[in-house]
Amino acid sequence: MELKMSGITKSFGSVQVLNQAGIHVKEKEVHALMGENGAGKSTLMKILTGVYSKDAGNILINNESKDMNTIKDSENLRIAFIHQELNVLDDMSIVDNMFLGKELKTRIGFLDKKTMIHLAREKLMLLGLNIDPTMRVKDISVGSQQLVEIAKALLMDAELIIMDEPTAALSDKEIDLLFSIIKQLKVKGVSFIYISHRMEEIFKICDEITVMRDGKFIGQKAAKDTTFEEIVSMMVGYDLDDRFPRVEVEPGDTILSVSNLTKKGKFVNVSFEVKQGEVLGFSGLMGSGRTDVMHAIFGSTPYDTGSISIYGKEIKISSPIHSKKVGLGFITEDRKNEGLILDFSVRENTILPYLKSLTKRKIITEGKITSLVDEYITKLKVRTASQVIPVGKLSGGNQQKIVIAKWLITKPKILILDEPTRGVDVGAKKEIYEIINQLKKEGVAIIVVSSELPEVMGICDRIAIMNEKKLVKILNRENASQEKVMEYATVGGIGVE
């Protein structure tokens, strides 16, 4: 399918969110749509898929003018949208999710379960998912749920597939498989719009790159003819001098010590320590146990054996509330379900962990709260119209800053950041790295869990690598390479010098 969108304009009330935006995707092409959070990418795609109507502009499908008045209009043209926020119903089976609203029936009007299960299994197998289609979605991993969403697109024989951060929940093995499927579908004539903040992926899988900024079309480049630096400059409007700003800090005393921590089925004999002013990275494949270890340290998941010490004193952390009292903060990888209450305001989300300290005789001191929230909005460069708008209305990067702010207010001695820049644009990523640098200078012990190897290599002082539920190696930054980290992560270090 060939798609041309040009001169697309859209306003919500007095706020113009798109101004002469557009994109040109050719047949058999993987086309990256890039821009910072709030650049207008999602709005443009929602116009293409009939969620919003355009105020002005043209949409051409295979050189024929089309109006997308409903989602059904785009589906009838075989356009599929795989959202970053998974569009699945947990309590329903995989096959029922895949055929929802498109159920097949027998000649006498009954549901044709046999055919639906057969077709579902066929599409899942194409993606390397050898699972029972009658299983409930809640019983499979998040990565597998993402592949189910892709299988739904295959089921409708989509000719244009829009993928919004499709690899955010996938392991490296699943990402390789996804890219293989994309290449196979390209050969068959399928086109893709690929939205991702992971630059390495863009240059690996995409043919063309369109950049948006402030609701406008900025430019289009062939991936082979441009560079990371040029694309970032187009996105932010200025040169981003250093992708991974990092400060050198002399580590102080050991704050956190973990010894032989074990949770059956999750992780085995994990031991490490973190010092004041140090960033310890945790790397490893999905399912290696990284996040499970962090939840155990924070008290949100009980562990079976082992010990945790803070400043040399063993502490049995019983809950997240206990963690906060001993100076531990945890920014989880799932900000929307675990880090924020999306319907609550920026103000309410920011002060949640600190609320008790902001009350006097059970009365909330409003002036103190307003001043404190303003301080952290300024300090973290949160872009928000006011303190009282729902946090769900902010861009992904600004939501992440609110999650960070609510823990910084508690003045943690130890801060765990699990996938701190997932789904965040390059400008906001750099700002988050600078926050980490400032915390280093203040003597906070920091753990960063990340699936992005360049990020781990760029901002961490040491790198702990997990393989098959075990911590197999801790490398100093100067002795580490991406190849060495990947070897430890994939084969446990066998053959690594």
Task: Jot down its keywords.
single chain; 6-stranded mixed sheet; Rossmann fold; 497 residues; 17 helices; globular; 33% helix; 2 domains; 22 strands; alpha/beta
**Terminal CA distance:** 49 Å
Helix content range: 25-40%
Specify the CATH class of the largest domain.
Alpha Beta
Low-confidence stretches: none
Output the strand order for the largest sheet.
Answer: 6-7-8-3-9-10
The counted number of beta strands is 22
Taken together, the total number of domains comes to 2
* CATH H-tier superfamily of the largest domain: P-loop containing nucleotide triphosphate hydrolases
Fold-level CATH name of the largest domain: Rossmann fold
Walkthrough of the structure:
The protein is of the alpha/beta class and 497 residues long. The chain folds into two domains: 3-236, Rossmann fold (3-Layer(aba) Sandwich), CATH 3.40.50; 254-491, P-loop containing nucleotide triphosphate hydrolases (Rossmann fold). The chain has helices spanning 41-48, 71-76, 94-98, 113-126, 142-155, 172-187, 199-205, 228-236, 290-298, 320-325, 335-339, 346-351, 366-379, 396-408, 426-441, 453-459, 482-491, and strands at residues 3-12, 15-25, 30-34, 56-61, 64-65, 79-82, 160-164, 191-195, 208-213, 216-222, 254-263, 267-275, 279-284, 305-310, 313-314, 328-331, 359-360, 363-364, 414-418, 445-449, 462-467, 470-476. The protein has a six-stranded mixed β-sheet. A six-stranded mixed β-sheet has the order 16-19-20-13-21-22, sandwiched between helices. Strand 14 (305-310) and strand 15 (313-314) form a beta hairpin. Helix 4 packs across helix 5 (142-155). The mean pLDDT is 89.
